[in-house]
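Query form — protein Cytochrome b5 domain containing protein

QUESTION: What is the three-dimensional structure of this chain?
INPUT:
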Amino acid sequence: MSTEYTLNEVARHCTADDLWIAYKGGVYNVTSYFSSHPGGNAMLRQAGKDASNAIPSVQMHTFAWSAIEKKLAELRIGILKE
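ANSWER: The structure tokens for Cytochrome b5 domain containing protein are given below.
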């Protein structure tokens, strides 16, 4: 069974040293990926938030979608509680 997190809990993790996002019902600890993210600090704009609309809207993501899905699967820590 997956751990459930509220969006308020996700919001507490909003710094470069502790960076979580929600995406399409999942919760992801992306802290370890932040320093290698090709978009640099752009990821911080979604820190502690639901990035379900933001991630697909980045044009460069369309070229790397399979890699993004693979990385998200590795970083998933739970599900977003409604």
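ADDITIONAL NOTE: The mean pLDDT is 89.
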